[in-house]
Amino acid sequence: MTAEPVHGGLVDLHVHFMPDRVLRKVWDFFDRAGEHYGMEWPVEYRGTEAERLETLASLGVSTFAPLVYAHKPGMARWLTKWALDFGRRTPGAVPTATIYPEPDVAEYLSAALEAGARCVKVHVQVGGFDPRDRLLAPAWGMLADAGVPVVVHCGNGPRPGAYTGLDIFAEVLAEHSTLVAVLAHAGMPDFLGALDLLARFPRLHLDTTMVGTHFTERFAPLPADWASRLVDVADRVALGSDFPNIPYPYAEQLTAIRSWAEADDRLGEPFLSAVLRETPARLLGLG
Question: Where are the beta strands (DSSP E) in the chain?
Answer without folding.
Answer: 10-15, 61-66, 96-98, 119-123, 150-153, 181-183, 205-207, 237-238
